[in-house]
Specification:
Blueprint lengths: L1 E5 L10 E5 L9 E5 L3 H25 L6 E4 L8 E5 L7 H21 L4 E5 L10 H15 L6 E6 L4 H14 L11 E6 L2 E7 L9 E5 L3 H11 L1 H13 L5 E5 L7 E5 L7 H21 L5 E4 L28 E3 L5 H14 L6 E7 L2 H18 L4 E8 L1 H10 L17 E4 L2 H5 L10 E9 L3 E3 L13 E3 L4 E4 L5 E9 L1
Parallel strand pairs: 1-9, 1-13, 2-7, 3-5, 3-6, 6-7, 10-12, 10-13, 19-20
Antiparallel strand pairs: 4-5, 8-9, 11-12, 14-15, 15-22, 16-18, 17-21, 18-22, 20-21
Helix pairs in contact: 2-3, 3-4, 7-9
């Protein structure tokens, strides 16, 4: 169980659901949603967006005419960042109609959430010449949005044509009916949700009074640190000073619980950053480090403070993508290299040298352009360089079956792949400088083709591994066989750079 503690906040927030008169074309937002089955709306958007929008839509639709959603970058007079085209058809059966509206709204919202957008605008679909019940459409669209906003913060607007006052009034009435009482009129102290085999709770209260295995504090937060140490007592205060003095560069230090009702206190080194992506990754790293150390102690419950919530640090991230990457207007992340490219020849040559005759032909080499994964790896790499003062990156191979390769391309080398290549040198993700070794963990598909990644891997401080190691040993970043095998224990410690398909 993981519990997050926060003090109450009496400030109320405005509703994230907005109903207004206007035009989808001129609305400044991240996403506008267009019903591609509505001839009038579709043609209006394509005309306003010009050739770039029309051409991109036609190309994607010709490749996959049954696609549930087509995403096009905005252009021309369209003020949004992107356009979601979704098909939808009216139906006289109210049950079928309601379900189709729910699917339409849910699909658009889920895609916007996946792409980390913060604002989206919907038209009032079905309220024109379809003969549908405006009341049913308004209620269904708004209730679907409302259910999604319980778990994700986003501004959702419904744009109604200026001459459709009756439609505006219907949508506005349903939004007003859903408004919650302000925080000052209710007292919500705890919410909880199940995730897999665990539970995450968010609770208002005093972290020092919680009965859990681990209480987490931040070494950079003077107020929180003093509160925890004062409640824990002199034994814990002395232990903290000794640990901090002896290990000033440790990211995490453990001390006895003292007078607190937990088993251990973990203090982690963490600081805010005005780069949103770096800030997000630093919080992910913090939680990973704490959870991994808790697992090594066989602890099952942790209490985190809501760190970094005193001030907002959100500015647009600034970083440079690799010079070899190609631009794409779509969500494309796999790019097949030409055999004439120096990039291809270099990879193929190294692969040939280390495969030692275990293959007959390279079918293709794909460059993986996963921007999110690259940025997470870049942040991790900078942290390694700052901490170790030396570049420990290696380019290593990772063999797997085709299904796993597709998942890794999208989600990276996460800990779900730990143990796939055995546990002889630790329970992590295995890489090797020897392609012939990694070849032993590949599997042929129906075409007798195999696949292997060439990955960028941060080795950091490494030590001899063994089968008892569930996480990285304290003071080290990876384990090894002492020769060509390296084992990582952090999701962002390796980046899938190329996928080699061969026979």
């Amino acid at each position: 169980m993981i519990t997050l503690y926060s003090t109450p906040n009496s400030k109320s927030q405005s509703s994230p659901i907005i109903v207004c008169h206007g035009d989808l074309i001129t609305r400044e937002t991240d996403v506008i949603v267009v019903c591609s089955s509505s001839e009038y709306l579709f043609e209006s958007i394509c005309q306003a967006g010009g050739d770039p929008v029309s051409t991109s839509y036609k190309q994607q639709n010709s490749r996959n005419p049954n696609a549930p959603i087509i995403i096009v970058e905005s252009a021309g007079k369209i003020a949004s960042k992107t356009i979601y085209f979704l098909p939808w058809k009216a139906n006289p059966d109210e049950s079928i109609l309601r379900k189709s509206i729910e699917n339409f709204v849910s699909l658009a919202l889920e895609k916007a959430i996946e792409q980390k957008y913060r604002s989206i605008v919907f038209p009032a679909i079905g309220c024109g010449g379809f003969g549908c019940s405006i009341q049913l459409i308004a209620r269904t669209m708004i209730e679907t949005v409302y259910s999604k906003l319980k778990t994700y913060q986003m501004s959702v607007s419904f744009i109604i044509q200026p001459n459709k006052k009756h439609i505006y009034d219907e949508f506005k009435e349903h939004v007003d009916a859903l408004k919650l009482p302000s925080p000052s009129s209710i007292e919500l102290r705890k919410i909880a949700a199940d995730f897999g085999k665990g539970v995450i709770e968010v609770e208002m209260g005093d972290i020092t009074t919680q009965t859990v295995d681990v209480i987490v504090g931040s070494t950079s937060s003077g107020i929180l640190r003093e509160i925890i140490l004062k409640a824990a007592g002199k034994e814990s205060q002395l232990a903290y000073e000794i640990e901090r003095r002896n290990h000033p560069n440790y990211i995490l230090i453990e001390i006895p619980a003292g007078s607190l009702q937990c088993k251990k206190i973990f203090f982690v080194k963490w600081g805010p950053n005005d780069n949103e992506e770096i800030l997000q990754q630093s919080l992910i790293d913090l939680i990973n480090i704490v959870v991994q150390n808790a697992i090594s102690h066989k602890f099952t419950s942790i209490a985190f403070p809501a760190i970094g919530c005193g001030k907002s640090f959100y500015q647009r991230p600034c970083y440079q993508l690799p010079a070899t990457w190609e631009k794409s207007a779509e969500d494309k992340i796999r790019f097949t290299l030409s055999t004439k490219m120096h990039e291809y020849k270099s990879i193929a040559s190294n692969f040939d040298q280390t495969m030692k005759g275990k293959y007959t032909d390279i079918i293709k080499i794909e460059r993986i352009q996963n921007e999110r994964g690259y940025l997470q790896y870049l942040v991790h790499s900078k942290d390694f360089l700052k901490r170790l003062k030396v570049d420990t990156e290696k380019r290593l191979y990772h063999g797997c079956h085709e299904q796993a390769a597709n998942a890794i391309i999208g989600e990276g080398f996460n800990r779900s792949y730990a143990g796939e290549h055995g546990t002889l040198y630790g329970f992590g993700v295995y890489f090797s400088s020897d392609a012939a070794y990694s070849h032993g963990y590949t599997k042929s598909n129906a075409n007798d083709e195999r696949c292997m990644f060439l990955a960028r891997v941060l080795i950091g401080e490494t030590t001899q591994g063994n089968h008892t190691m569930k996480t990285r040993p304290p003071g080290f970043d990876s384990t090894t066989d002492g020769n060509h095998i390296f084992v990582t224990y952090h999701d962002a410690q390796a980046l899938a750079e190329y996928l080699i398909t061969y026979k």
